[in-house]
């Protein structure tokens, strides 16, 4: 029974990591077709560096990811505050919308975004990408921040009020420092989500502003291109670092 | 920020919440429902009058077939994820904290790694000259490379690969909530392992099962890039159909109708999720007043 358990766990991790291991190995392989090891080489990384279209898409993706994560974090933190501290009309509907946003399959969200951008006349490209990325990251920030708010001592808010603090002062002198770990991990989550999204981006993208997933999608559809292996390895490294950061932040928060 | 101080914080927060969620979440969803009952138009995408034609077309044989095929692929994916994920989550949840944290960490890395890139990685495994074929031929199981790519098998393999963590994470958290004393009580009362599983473990972890199935089954149908990269001409997912209607054929009402069906399916599964949650809380001794 124990052998069965261990082999199940091991097999699952082999399944999860084998394809990525093959990618990383191929990215350092001299051979173009990757099924044969022809020696170590970093030429695909050099080719990637020289591939202007791909690098441009990469930097566009980073721009969108940083902006979307930052704005989603600001907006999400404020929304979490609102849901925690205030009663207001349509509050239930608002949290319902966040719920819908989190659970809707990407394809459904993609269509809703496309439809609203066409309806209100926002040109597809930078702005449509930014707005939709902010929106699909929102619920993750709200949930992370709200989870930490729940442990917050409401008496502190009352004390601040009694001592004459304005709402803004309460927010940036008390709330922000307390919530900092949650806000930071919300930002990191949003950053990764934005960098990863394929489905929504391919609907709301325009010809003038190409981001990585859309570019990679059209590349890999045509055929195998070893630069993609190099790119994949870099992205893998980025997410590894980010996940490690999030884990550390959340762990420290729990210890504190 | 002197300017900000004069503005009421509360009002700003509430306005931002209602404004953003209203304009970019509620309104668009309503517009999609509206679009689905409009008439398709080449120049304006969708125009009056209202019609149910799009929904009728969903049930035309060609589309009904694609629709069912897509449901079959997603359902198979969900069942495979559940069958492997359930025992896996059970073992992981009962490990020592250090090991548990490590395995969870290893689980989350692929979860946060670009899924398009991971789909592409599978091509390197399943291709004619890929690792799998080399192993199969190396072992002498086949003389010629097998056609693994561009098939239903490849699509399911890819979907399970991408979505497995989505199944496991809610399962693990529902195993975490499982109260061990209930199992001990069952044991004391003479229930054997199967009875304890059937009457205690399974019902109490049902919310995790339903949540896992919900976030595997529906997204699976939408992942058009998995079918595009790994599936053949026949292994389409609903996502491919929707994407084509929107971006290629430009029949927006028809594409919207499909996505409304997805929304309805989601609502249905959420309803089941709430029912199972309520059932578990009632079994756990909470009364309805607390819900």
TrEMBL record, chain A:
Principal location: membrane
Gene Ontology biological-process annotations: transmembrane transport
GO CC field: plasma membrane
PROSITE patterns: ABC_TM1
Residue stretches making up the ABC transmembrane type-1 domain: 58-246
Annotated compartments: Cell inner membrane; Cell membrane
Protein's UniProt name: Spermidine/putrescine transport system permease protein PotC
Automatic annotation (TrEMBL), chain B:
GO CC annotations, alphabetized: plasma membrane
Leader sequence segment: none
Membrane topology value: Multi-pass membrane protein
Main localization, broad class: membrane
Positions of the ABC transmembrane type-1 domain: 67-273
Annotated keywords: Cell membrane, Membrane, Transmembrane, Transmembrane helix, Transport
Subcellular locations according to the entry: Cell membrane
Keyword Transport applies: yes
A biological-process GO annotation: transmembrane transport
Residue intervals passing through the bilayer: 12-38, 66-89, 101-121, 153-172, 204-227, 254-274
PROSITE patterns with a match to the protein in the record: ABC_TM1
Pfam families reported in the protein's UniProt record: BPD_transp_1 (PF00528)
InterPro entries reported in the protein's UniProt record: MetI-like, MetI-like_sf
PANTHER family named in the record: INNER MEMBRANE ABC TRANSPORTER PERMEASE PROTEIN YDCU-RELATED (PTHR42929:SF1), INNER MEMBRANE ABC TRANSPORTER PERMEASE PROTEIN YDCU-RELATED-RELATED (PTHR42929)
Family the UniProt entry places it in: Belongs to the binding-protein-dependent transport system permease family. CysTW subfamily.
Protein's recorded name: Spermidine/putrescine ABC transporter membrane protein
Organism: Oleiphilus messinensis
């Amino acid at each position: 029974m124990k052998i069965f358990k261990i082999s199940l766990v091991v097999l699952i991790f082999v399944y999860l990591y084998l394809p990525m291991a093959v990618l990383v190995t191929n990215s350092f392989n001299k051979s173009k077709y990757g099924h044969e090891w022809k020696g170590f080489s970093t030429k695909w990384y050099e080719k990637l560096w020289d591939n202007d279209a791909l690098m441009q898409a990469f930097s566009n993706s980073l721009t969108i990811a940083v902006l979307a994560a930052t704005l989603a974090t600001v907006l999400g933190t404020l929304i979490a505050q609102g849901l925690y501290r205030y009663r207001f009309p349509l509050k239930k509907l608002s949290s319902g919308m966040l719920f819908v946003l989190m659970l809707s399959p990407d394809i459904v969200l993609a269509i809703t975004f496309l439809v609203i951008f066409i309806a209100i006349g926002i040109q597809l490209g930078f702005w449509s990408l930014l707005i939709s990325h902010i929106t699909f990251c929102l619920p993750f920030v709200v949930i992370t921040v709200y989870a930490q708010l729940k442990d917050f001592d409401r008496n502190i808010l009352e004390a601040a009020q009694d001592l004459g603090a304005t709402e803004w002062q309460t927010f940036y002198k008390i709330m922000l420092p307390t919530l900092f770990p949650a806000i930071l991990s919300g930002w990191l989550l949003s950053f990764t989500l934005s960098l990863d999204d394929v489905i929504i981006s391919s609907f709301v993208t325009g010809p003038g502003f190409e981001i990585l997933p859309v570019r990679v999608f059209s590349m890999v559809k045509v055929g195998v291109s070893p630069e993609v292996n190099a790119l994949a390895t870099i992205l893998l490294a980025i997410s590894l670092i980010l996940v490690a950061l999030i884990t550390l932040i959340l762990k420290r928060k729990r210890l504190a | 920020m002197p300017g900000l101080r004069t503005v009421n914080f509360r009002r700003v927060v509430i306005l931002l919440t209602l404004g953003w969620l209203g304009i970019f979440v509620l309104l668009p969803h309503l517009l999609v429902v509206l679009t689905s009952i409009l008439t398709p138009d080449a120049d304006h995408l969708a125009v009056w009058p209202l019609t149910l034609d799009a929904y009728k077309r969903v049930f035309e044989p060609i589309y009904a077939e694609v629709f069912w095929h897509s449901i079959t692929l997603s359902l198979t994916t969900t069942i495979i994820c559940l069958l492997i994920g359930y025992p896996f989550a059970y073992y992981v949840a009962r490990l020592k904290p250090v090991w548990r944290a490590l395995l969870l960490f290893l689980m989350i890395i692929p979860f946060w790694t670009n899924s398009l890139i991971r789909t592409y990685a599978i091509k390197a495994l399943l291709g004619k000259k890929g690792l799998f074929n080399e192993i199969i031929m190396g072992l002498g199981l086949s003389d010629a490379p097998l056609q693994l790519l561009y098939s239903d098998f490849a699509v399911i393999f890819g979907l399970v690969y991408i979505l497995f963590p989505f199944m496991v994470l809610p399962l693990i958290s529902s195993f975490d909530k499982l109260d061990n004393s209930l199992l001990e009580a069952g044991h004391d009362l003479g229930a054997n392992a199967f009875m304890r599983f059937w009457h205690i473990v399974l019902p109490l972890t049902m919310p995790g099962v339903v949540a896992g199935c919900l976030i595997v089954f529906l997204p699976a149908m939408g992942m058009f890039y998995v079918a595009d990269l790994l599936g053949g001409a026949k292994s389409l997912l609903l996502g491919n159909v929707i994407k084509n209607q929107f971006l290629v054929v430009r029949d927006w009402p028809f594409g919207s109708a499909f996505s409304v069906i997805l929304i309805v399916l989601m609502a249905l599964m959420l309803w089941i999720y709430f029912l199972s949650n309520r059932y578990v809380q009632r079994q756990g001794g909470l009364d309805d007043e607390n819900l």
